[in-house]
Specification:
- By secondary structure, the protein is mainly α.
- Helices cover about 75% and strands about 0% of the residues.
- The protein is built from 12 helices and no strands.
- Helix 1 packs across helix 11.
Length: about 350
């Protein structure tokens, strides 16, 4: 069994693994598929976006403005009622899409592991291979997120309710010290819950998922296998988390600069194309109605998706490295993974790869 690498010692073999698989030789198809996986899982670097206010013109005198933003100009309840159906549909659609995306990301998490560990970039076959484990991981994420929301609601809601019952809010000037101290205490408690949730999610993603994949386990059995390993080496795993934070900061700076340059290159022609479309539509007599608004939204989403994919493609080395870093650190502590790392598959199309343990 290979030596148990420390959080610092695991960096070098992860870099070597990344260089060997992605650059020796470079294969566009491999990068293209890895970019899809990292985009779906949200692992690509530099994915923060800023936005500005958009003003949609009306369709001219006498025409009805169908823009959902129009009620901001006339925010009366009667005006807002015109868009309640649209708002409800958008909220439900957004919730459904968010859940579907989390499910996709849960399955693709296993595809990313498979790509880094076995050099397999088979999207369709990988989807069929990892649906069972992905569904288990998805359900755990939903349940854990709901648990966090309940914990936050109780943490904030119960003290607020008790303070309201005691009349603290009716006479805030007489309870200023209590409100200030209580607010500070609640802030740190909420931050603690959020950080704890992030830590648990990180441990699940980095260590429970490999256990599920390599031994065909459900998520709860994966946790039962992992917790004794964590208890035996709490300091080493703490060092891993801290080291990963440091590496993530460095990666965010490096790829953030690269992505900013790419954004500037891509956004200028896209903005010009958008202005040309708006002016062309206005010259053709088109007005802002449900059809044109829907078309504009779809075009905007397509442009956004293309930009995100390009950024994900550029960030593929960072995505690959972080997954490899996790495997290098965990390998010496998990014999099944150690065996696969000791005998990596040959690089290249058609290379033989070991099958996952069942």
């Amino acid at each position: 069994m290979p030596a148990r690498l420390s959080a610092v010692d695991a960096v070098s073999p992860a870099f070597e693994h990344t260089k060997r698989q992605l650059f020796q030789p470079f294969r566009f198809r491999r990068w293209a598929r890895l970019a899809v996986v990292s985009l779906v899982t949200g692992e690509f670097a530099g994915s923060s976006w800023g936005g500005g206010n958009v003003s949609l013109p009306s369709g001219g005198e006498g025409s009805k403005d169908f823009s959902p933003l129009a009620w901001l100009v006339d925010p009366r309840w009667e005006r807002l009622q015109e868009f309640l159906l649209w708002i409800g549909v958008l909220v439900l659609l957004g919730l459904a899409l968010a859940l579907f995306w989390v499910y996709l990301a849960s399955v693709f998490r296993f595809l990313l592991l498979d790509a880094v560990l076995r050099d397999r970039y088979e999207l369709r076959a990988g989807w069929n291979r990892w649906q069972q484990q992905g569904l288990s991981y998805f359900l755990w994420q939903i349940g854990f997120s709901l648990l966090l929301l309940v914990a936050l609601a109780v943490t904030v809601g119960l003290p607020a309710f008790l303070a309201w019952q005691a009349g603290v809010f009716r006479q805030p000037d007489r309870h200023a010290a209590l409100l200030v101290l209580g607010g500070i205490a609640l802030f740190f408690i909420v931050v603690g819950i959020v950080l704890l949730g992030a830590l648990v999610a990180l441990l699940a993603k980095d260590f429970v998922v490999p256990l599920m994949a390599l031994e065909n386990l459900g998520v709860m059995e994966g946790w039962r296998r992992f917790l004794p390993l964590l208890a035996a080496e709490k300091a080493n795993f703490a060092g891993y988390v801290l080291m990963k934070i440091v590496l993530a900061i460095g990666s965010a700076i490096l790829f953030g600069i690269m992505n900013l340059i790419v954004l500037l290159v891509l956004l200028i022609p896209l903005a010009l194309a958008g202005v040309a479309l708006v002016l062309g539509g206005k010259a053709a007599g088109l007005a802002w109605d449900p059809f044109t608004i829907s078309a504009a939204v779809l075009l905007g989403l397509a442009a956004l998706g293309a930009i995100l994919y390009v950024i994900s493609f550029i960030s593929s080395p960072a995505v690959f490295f972080f997954q490899s870093y996790t495997l290098q650190f965990f390998g010496g502590r998990y014999p099944v993974l150690a065996a696969l790392l000791a005998h990596p598959p040959a690089s290249g199309p058609g290379a033989a790869v070991p099958a996952p343990a069942s």
